[in-house]
Amino acid sequence: MAPSALAWPAVLDLLADGQWHSGSALGEALAVSRAAIWKQVRALRSLGLEVLAERRRGYRLDRPLDLLNPVRIRDELTPVTRAGMQLLEVLLVTPSTNARLAAEPAPPPGQIRAVAAEYQTGGRGRRGRRWLSPPGHGVCLSVAWSFESAPRDLPALSLVAGVAVIGALQQLGVGGVQLKWPNDVMAAGGKVGGILVDVSGESGGPLRAVVGIGLNVRPVPGIATALLLEGGHLPAVALDDLLPGAGLDRSVLVGALINRLHECLVGFGDRGWPDVLPVWRQNDYLAGRSVVVTRGADTLSGIARGIADDGALLVEADGRIFPIVAGDVTLRAPL
Prior knowledge:
Layout: H1 11-15, H2 23-30, H3 34-46, E1 51-54, E2 58-61, H4 70-76, H5 79-83, E3 85-94, H6 97-102, E4 112-120, E5 138-147, H7 157-171, E6 177-180, E7 184-187, E8 190-201, E9 207-216, H8 223-229, H9 250-271, H10 277-282, E10 290-295, E11 298-307, E12 313-317, E13 320-324, E14 328-331
Helix pairs in contact: 2-3, 4-9, 7-9
């Protein structure tokens, strides 16, 4: 049975417009007491939202929220993606979009299942770190896909997903985004998001892959400090910081991501990943940089020299090239 969507403070739908709402008006609209409204406001604050409160004025969010709209997401899907869409689900809050899809039946080969959520209580990133994004500020999206047999290039699946993210962002006018091996999305010297791939099934097939994408869209005060406390090494960057004028429409962004993921997954299953390898190399964040690779108790310091044809990270150290297939990679601080 899939993890269920969790209870969501109903007051958010009323406060999403960013206007002042009195406690009595909110209580009347929701048929609850003003004390219950206050509890819901505290719950919103615990999720990372800034809710202002003033005597005689009531409550309002510090900025309006454009909550994800499943109808608008569907409108963004191409005819090919729509034909291959077995499920599109938009949740308000859930433990994890990846876990929700992993607990459901795998889609038939050639079909895609997608789940997006406003907030994840148990979202995770690289090496089990939490994914931090308040409601209405980011994208939490997972898609499930089935392979009848294990693709030869299966270890490169997270790299393929990264190319899909780059394509979706470029389509929407977001430039300067790069990929940090194996699954980070970078821009302006910081981290925009990350990719998490879970694979299950038999080694000979069929296999079910769940690809999770987390992106920072709206700037979040204090998130850089929170990420450092979580053990991160890079500052957080929001996509809206990369665009002049109005910010991204998150429903449009989710639709673009699903389109690109569907396109890349179809190509990956048919031809492997050589089609997208040049795109990854063009957007390689680490190439030429000094890095430290940590694998358990072992570390390797050297210069990143791109990626091999099989997706391994190439690191030059002591006059030799070392292929890295797993590990945590950080930039080496200058001496």
